[in-house]
Specification:
Layout lengths: L15 E5 L9 H14 L6 H7 L4 H9 L1 H20 L11 H10 L2 E6 L4 H11 L5 E5 L12 H10 L6 E5 L2 H10 L2 E5 L6 H7 L3 E3 L2 H6 L9
Parallel strand pairs: 1-2, 1-4, 2-3, 4-5, 5-6
Helix pairs in contact: 1-2, 1-4, 3-4
Length: about 230
């Protein structure tokens, strides 16, 4: 541990990165997204079950829309539906809440020498609101957003972009997410994925997708940190 109180990798040890999804992983927002998408679809004449929407949260908006109402409707109405979702979701920006232990987990990992990055489809005011809810910008070195990549998760690009920014190789990184799309993206990027149940997906789904470990929420991961894939 250096004089600044931060434990840095020893000389000759490669740098490490812990890359985090945000919605459902650090902020309790997946069900709000579900309601916002439900209302957006309703405004354009589509009745889509919330259970189906929830399972798709985390996909890029174009893929989510095509999956739920079909490619033709997505081509014709996708942009308008996505805009409606953003408008509905924005009403909750000021009330977003971090999941239990989110900030403490990020600060603890940063204190142990991990380079902390976010990989999210959020951008602009939405990303600002999410980071304000997390309240741990002192531990976060950067974020890759939809504006930084050509394709969102489950494509590996968001995670790869975060690793490029961190200057860390995949084998020296861990990704923490909450959806099967997160797990698939991490696998394609060559990064082990630790999954959380806080986004509403089941342990069976996450393990089947390839998660190397599953915890209830950030607080439970923090409590088990020394026996987790994010241990020193």
């Amino acid at each position: 541990m250096n004089a600044d109180g931060v434990r840095h990798p020893g000389r000759g040890n490669p740098p490490r990165a812990a890359v985090f999804d945000v919605d459902g992983t650090l902020v309790d927002s997946n069900h709000l997204h579900t309601v916002a998408w439900w209302e957006a679809f309703r405004q354009y004449g589509h009745q889509v079950p919330m259970s189906a929407i929830h399972h798709c949260v985390g996909l890029p908006s174009g893929r989510l829309t095509a999956r739920l109402v079909g490619p033709k409707c997505a081509d014709e109405q996708g942009d308008a539906i996505s805009t409606a979702h953003s408008v509905v979701y924005a009403q909750w920006h000021e009330r977003l809440q971090a999941l239990d232990g989110a900030a403490a987990l990020l600060r603890t990992l940063a204190g142990r020498g991990w380079r902390i990055y976010l990989a999210t489809s959020a951008k602009g005011g939405e990303l600002t609101a999410l980071r304000r809810a997390i309240n741990a910008d002192d531990a976060i070195l950067g974020a890759t957003t939809a504006e930084d990549v050509s394709e969102g998760k489950p494509a590996p690009e968001p995670i790869e972009a975060a690793l490029d920014a961190a200057g860390v190789r995949p084998e020296h990184a861990r990704f923490v997410g909450d959806s099967i799309w997160d797990v698939e993206a991490a696998e394609r990027a060559g990064v082990e994925c630790v999954a959380l149940l806080s986004g509403g997906n089941s342990q069976a789904e996450l393990v089947e997708a390839g998660a190397v470990a599953v915890y209830e929420n950030p607080a439970r991961l923090l409590a088990a940190l020394d026996s987790s894939p994010l241990r020193d």
